[in-house]
Amino acid sequence: MVAFHLKTTALALAFAAGMATQGMAAEPTLDLVGPLSEYKLYVAENTAQLVTDTEAFVAAIKAGDVEKAKSLFAPTRMSYERIEPIAELFSDLDGAIDARADDYEKAEADEAFTGFHRIEYALWVESSTDPVQGYADQLLTDVKALDARINELTFPPEVVVGGAAALMEEVAATKISGEEDRYSRTDLWDFDANFAGSEKIYDLLKPLIAEKDPAFVTKTDANFKAVDDVLAKYRKDGGYVSYVELTDADRTVLSTRVNTLAEDLSTLRGMLGLN
Protein backbone atom coordinates (compact mmCIF):
# COMPACT_ATOMS: atom_id res chain seq x y z
CA MET A 1 0.00 0.00 0.00
CA VAL A 2 1.22 3.50 -0.83
CA ALA A 3 2.28 5.46 2.22
CA PHE A 4 0.68 8.85 1.81
CA HIS A 5 3.18 11.69 1.89
CA LEU A 6 2.03 13.81 4.83
CA LYS A 7 4.89 15.69 6.46
CA THR A 8 3.99 15.57 10.12
CA THR A 9 5.75 18.72 11.20
CA ALA A 10 4.65 20.39 14.37
CA LEU A 11 3.37 23.14 12.14
CA ALA A 12 0.93 21.03 10.15
CA LEU A 13 -0.23 19.22 13.28
CA ALA A 14 -0.93 22.50 15.02
CA PHE A 15 -3.04 23.68 12.14
CA ALA A 16 -5.01 20.45 12.02
CA ALA A 17 -5.62 20.51 15.76
CA GLY A 18 -6.74 24.10 15.65
CA MET A 19 -9.17 23.43 12.82
CA ALA A 20 -10.60 20.41 14.59
CA THR A 21 -11.17 22.06 17.95
CA GLN A 22 -12.18 25.52 16.84
CA GLY A 23 -13.70 25.01 13.41
CA MET A 24 -11.37 27.70 12.14
CA ALA A 25 -7.90 29.10 12.71
CA ALA A 26 -7.30 31.45 15.60
CA GLU A 27 -8.02 35.09 14.89
CA PRO A 28 -4.85 37.18 14.81
CA THR A 29 -4.41 39.90 17.39
CA LEU A 30 -4.23 43.41 16.02
CA ASP A 31 -0.46 43.33 16.55
CA LEU A 32 -0.16 40.36 14.18
CA VAL A 33 -2.27 41.74 11.35
CA GLY A 34 0.64 43.67 9.82
CA PRO A 35 3.20 40.85 9.97
CA LEU A 36 0.67 38.35 8.59
CA SER A 37 -0.15 40.65 5.69
CA GLU A 38 3.53 41.11 4.91
CA TYR A 39 4.12 37.38 5.10
CA LYS A 40 1.28 36.68 2.71
CA LEU A 41 2.91 39.03 0.21
CA TYR A 42 6.22 37.19 0.69
CA VAL A 43 4.54 33.85 0.07
CA ALA A 44 2.71 35.18 -3.00
CA GLU A 45 5.99 36.46 -4.46
CA ASN A 46 7.59 33.06 -3.93
CA THR A 47 4.73 31.03 -5.41
CA ALA A 48 4.69 33.33 -8.45
CA GLN A 49 8.44 32.81 -8.80
CA LEU A 50 7.94 29.07 -8.38
CA VAL A 51 5.53 29.04 -11.31
CA THR A 52 7.94 31.02 -13.50
CA ASP A 53 10.94 28.86 -12.58
CA THR A 54 8.99 25.62 -12.98
CA GLU A 55 7.93 26.68 -16.47
CA ALA A 56 11.60 27.06 -17.44
CA PHE A 57 12.51 23.78 -15.72
CA VAL A 58 9.72 21.90 -17.48
CA ALA A 59 10.64 23.48 -20.82
CA ALA A 60 14.16 22.06 -20.48
CA ILE A 61 12.72 18.62 -19.73
CA LYS A 62 10.34 18.78 -22.68
CA ALA A 63 13.29 19.74 -24.88
CA GLY A 64 15.26 16.74 -23.66
CA ASP A 65 18.04 18.95 -22.30
CA VAL A 66 19.27 16.95 -19.30
CA GLU A 67 22.14 19.26 -18.36
CA LYS A 68 20.01 22.41 -18.45
CA ALA A 69 17.30 20.72 -16.42
CA LYS A 70 19.92 19.67 -13.85
CA SER A 71 21.17 23.25 -13.56
CA LEU A 72 17.62 24.49 -12.94
CA PHE A 73 16.54 21.82 -10.46
CA ALA A 74 17.89 23.27 -7.19
CA PRO A 75 17.17 26.97 -7.93
CA THR A 76 13.62 26.13 -8.97
CA ARG A 77 12.90 24.30 -5.72
CA MET A 78 14.06 27.15 -3.50
CA SER A 79 10.84 29.14 -3.78
CA TYR A 80 8.91 26.06 -2.69
CA GLU A 81 11.19 25.37 0.25
CA ARG A 82 10.96 28.95 1.51
CA ILE A 83 7.17 28.74 1.88
CA GLU A 84 6.93 25.07 2.81
CA PRO A 85 4.91 25.71 6.00
CA ILE A 86 2.05 27.05 3.90
CA ALA A 87 2.47 24.55 1.05
CA GLU A 88 2.17 21.68 3.53
CA LEU A 89 -1.35 22.78 4.41
CA PHE A 90 -2.41 21.35 1.03
CA SER A 91 -1.32 17.76 1.57
CA ASP A 92 -2.51 16.51 -1.82
CA LEU A 93 -0.39 19.03 -3.72
CA ASP A 94 2.54 18.79 -1.30
CA GLY A 95 2.61 15.04 -1.86
CA ALA A 96 2.36 15.36 -5.63
CA ILE A 97 5.07 18.01 -5.79
CA ASP A 98 7.54 16.98 -3.10
CA ALA A 99 7.10 13.28 -2.29
CA ARG A 100 10.08 10.97 -1.85
CA ALA A 101 10.44 7.46 -3.27
CA ASP A 102 10.21 6.06 0.26
CA ASP A 103 6.54 7.04 0.34
CA TYR A 104 5.63 4.43 -2.27
CA GLU A 105 5.50 0.66 -2.31
CA LYS A 106 7.61 0.29 -5.46
CA ALA A 107 9.86 3.27 -4.66
CA GLU A 108 11.24 4.89 -7.82
CA ALA A 109 9.45 2.35 -10.02
CA ASP A 110 6.03 3.28 -8.64
CA GLU A 111 3.91 5.21 -11.15
CA ALA A 112 2.37 7.20 -8.30
CA PHE A 113 5.79 8.68 -7.45
CA THR A 114 5.63 12.13 -9.06
CA GLY A 115 6.98 15.64 -8.68
CA PHE A 116 10.41 17.14 -8.24
CA HIS A 117 12.09 14.07 -6.81
CA ARG A 118 10.83 11.68 -9.48
CA ILE A 119 12.26 14.07 -12.06
CA GLU A 120 15.45 14.39 -10.01
CA TYR A 121 15.84 10.60 -10.21
CA ALA A 122 15.40 10.68 -13.99
CA LEU A 123 18.00 13.41 -14.44
CA TRP A 124 20.75 12.10 -12.17
CA VAL A 125 20.21 8.33 -12.22
CA GLU A 126 18.48 7.56 -15.49
CA SER A 127 20.26 10.45 -17.28
CA SER A 128 17.20 11.01 -19.42
CA THR A 129 14.10 13.17 -19.58
CA ASP A 130 12.15 10.56 -21.55
CA PRO A 131 10.59 8.77 -18.54
CA VAL A 132 9.27 11.99 -16.99
CA GLN A 133 7.68 13.95 -19.82
CA GLY A 134 4.22 13.41 -18.37
CA TYR A 135 5.42 13.99 -14.81
CA ALA A 136 6.90 17.33 -15.87
CA ASP A 137 3.55 18.46 -17.27
CA GLN A 138 1.83 17.36 -14.07
CA LEU A 139 4.38 19.16 -11.92
CA LEU A 140 3.64 22.45 -13.66
CA THR A 141 -0.10 21.88 -13.29
CA ASP A 142 0.31 21.15 -9.58
CA VAL A 143 2.54 24.18 -8.98
CA LYS A 144 0.01 26.46 -10.66
CA ALA A 145 -2.76 24.92 -8.56
CA LEU A 146 -0.72 25.54 -5.41
CA ASP A 147 -0.21 29.17 -6.39
CA ALA A 148 -3.96 29.62 -6.92
CA ARG A 149 -4.94 27.96 -3.64
CA ILE A 150 -2.43 29.89 -1.57
CA ASN A 151 -3.59 33.18 -3.05
CA GLU A 152 -7.11 32.41 -1.80
CA LEU A 153 -5.99 31.27 1.66
CA THR A 154 -6.43 33.19 4.90
CA PHE A 155 -3.19 32.44 6.70
CA PRO A 156 -3.69 30.96 10.19
CA PRO A 157 -1.52 33.01 12.57
CA GLU A 158 -0.44 29.98 14.59
CA VAL A 159 0.78 28.30 11.41
CA VAL A 160 2.79 31.32 10.28
CA VAL A 161 4.39 31.94 13.67
CA GLY A 162 5.02 28.22 14.21
CA GLY A 163 6.51 27.98 10.75
CA ALA A 164 9.73 29.70 11.81
CA ALA A 165 10.57 26.79 14.10
CA ALA A 166 9.03 24.08 11.91
CA LEU A 167 11.32 24.88 8.99
CA MET A 168 14.40 24.52 11.14
CA GLU A 169 13.07 21.43 12.93
CA GLU A 170 12.51 19.69 9.61
CA VAL A 171 16.08 20.39 8.53
CA ALA A 172 17.43 19.01 11.79
CA ALA A 173 15.09 16.02 12.03
CA THR A 174 15.12 14.66 8.48
CA LYS A 175 16.94 16.74 5.90
CA ILE A 176 20.32 16.77 7.62
CA SER A 177 20.65 13.07 6.75
CA GLY A 178 20.57 13.94 3.05
CA GLU A 179 17.42 11.94 2.42
CA GLU A 180 15.60 14.59 0.40
CA ASP A 181 17.85 15.40 -2.57
CA ARG A 182 19.46 11.99 -2.55
CA TYR A 183 20.15 11.78 -6.30
CA SER A 184 21.36 15.32 -7.03
CA ARG A 185 23.01 16.04 -3.64
CA THR A 186 21.69 19.61 -3.82
CA ASP A 187 20.51 19.48 -0.19
CA LEU A 188 22.28 22.68 0.85
CA TRP A 189 20.13 24.70 -1.55
CA ASP A 190 17.06 23.42 0.31
CA PHE A 191 18.65 24.20 3.67
CA ASP A 192 19.34 27.75 2.53
CA ALA A 193 15.74 28.20 1.39
CA ASN A 194 14.31 26.76 4.62
CA PHE A 195 16.61 29.06 6.58
CA ALA A 196 15.50 32.10 4.55
CA GLY A 197 11.84 31.26 5.03
CA SER A 198 12.31 30.89 8.77
CA GLU A 199 14.27 34.12 9.04
CA LYS A 200 11.59 36.02 7.11
CA ILE A 201 8.92 35.02 9.62
CA TYR A 202 11.18 35.89 12.53
CA ASP A 203 12.13 39.29 11.06
CA LEU A 204 8.46 40.20 10.60
CA LEU A 205 7.71 39.28 14.21
CA LYS A 206 10.89 40.75 15.71
CA PRO A 207 9.45 44.19 16.58
CA LEU A 208 6.70 42.53 18.63
CA ILE A 209 9.13 40.16 20.32
CA ALA A 210 11.64 42.90 21.10
CA GLU A 211 9.00 44.70 23.16
CA LYS A 212 8.45 41.61 25.28
CA ASP A 213 11.96 40.19 25.56
CA PRO A 214 14.88 42.12 24.02
CA ALA A 215 17.38 39.60 25.41
CA PHE A 216 15.64 36.85 23.46
CA VAL A 217 16.03 38.84 20.26
CA THR A 218 19.73 39.34 20.90
CA LYS A 219 20.23 35.61 21.48
CA THR A 220 18.12 34.53 18.50
CA ASP A 221 19.81 37.00 16.16
CA ALA A 222 23.12 35.44 17.17
CA ASN A 223 21.79 31.94 16.51
CA PHE A 224 20.56 32.93 13.05
CA LYS A 225 24.03 34.31 12.32
CA ALA A 226 25.62 31.08 13.57
CA VAL A 227 23.59 29.00 11.09
CA ASP A 228 24.29 31.42 8.27
CA ASP A 229 28.02 31.35 9.03
CA VAL A 230 28.02 27.55 8.74
CA LEU A 231 26.12 27.61 5.44
CA ALA A 232 28.45 30.30 4.10
CA LYS A 233 31.36 27.83 4.29
CA TYR A 234 29.78 25.77 1.54
CA ARG A 235 28.63 28.50 -0.86
CA LYS A 236 30.24 28.36 -4.28
CA ASP A 237 29.62 30.10 -7.61
CA GLY A 238 26.25 31.51 -6.59
CA GLY A 239 25.08 28.20 -5.18
CA TYR A 240 26.38 25.41 -2.98
CA VAL A 241 28.83 22.55 -3.11
CA SER A 242 27.51 19.01 -3.37
CA TYR A 243 26.27 17.66 -0.07
CA VAL A 244 28.66 14.73 -0.40
CA GLU A 245 31.52 17.14 0.27
CA LEU A 246 30.39 17.58 3.88
CA THR A 247 31.96 15.24 6.41
CA ASP A 248 30.04 13.68 9.29
CA ALA A 249 31.63 16.30 11.52
CA ASP A 250 30.40 19.07 9.22
CA ARG A 251 26.86 17.71 9.37
CA THR A 252 27.03 17.46 13.15
CA VAL A 253 28.03 21.11 13.47
CA LEU A 254 25.27 22.18 11.10
CA SER A 255 22.71 20.05 12.94
CA THR A 256 23.74 21.48 16.31
CA ARG A 257 23.42 25.07 15.10
CA VAL A 258 20.04 24.41 13.49
CA ASN A 259 18.69 22.63 16.58
CA THR A 260 19.74 25.50 18.83
CA LEU A 261 17.96 27.97 16.57
CA ALA A 262 14.87 25.77 16.35
CA GLU A 263 14.65 25.60 20.15
CA ASP A 264 14.57 29.38 20.36
CA LEU A 265 12.00 29.72 17.61
CA SER A 266 9.76 27.06 19.14
CA THR A 267 8.88 29.55 21.91
CA LEU A 268 7.50 32.21 19.55
CA ARG A 269 3.94 30.98 19.57
CA GLY A 270 3.80 31.07 23.36
CA MET A 271 5.39 34.50 23.47
CA LEU A 272 2.70 35.81 21.14
CA GLY A 273 -0.20 34.06 22.84
CA LEU A 274 -0.88 31.49 20.14
CA ASN A 275 -0.47 28.22 22.09
UniProtKB/TrEMBL annotation:
Signal peptide residue numbers = 1-25
Which keywords does UniProt give here?
A: Signal
Classification via InterPro entries: EfeM/EfeO_iron_uptake (IPR050894), Imelysin-like (IPR018976), Imelysin-like_EfeO/Algp7 (IPR034981), Imelysin_sf (IPR038352), Iron_uptake_EfeM/EfeO (IPR053377)
Q: Which Gene3D superfamilies match?
A: M75 peptidase, HXXE motif
Q: Name one GO cellular component term.
A: cell envelope
Q: Which family does it belong to?
A: Belongs to the EfeM/EfeO family.
Q: What is this protein called?
A: Iron uptake system protein EfeO
Lineage, broadest ranks: Bacteria, Pseudomonadati, Pseudomonadota, Alphaproteobacteria, Rhodobacterales
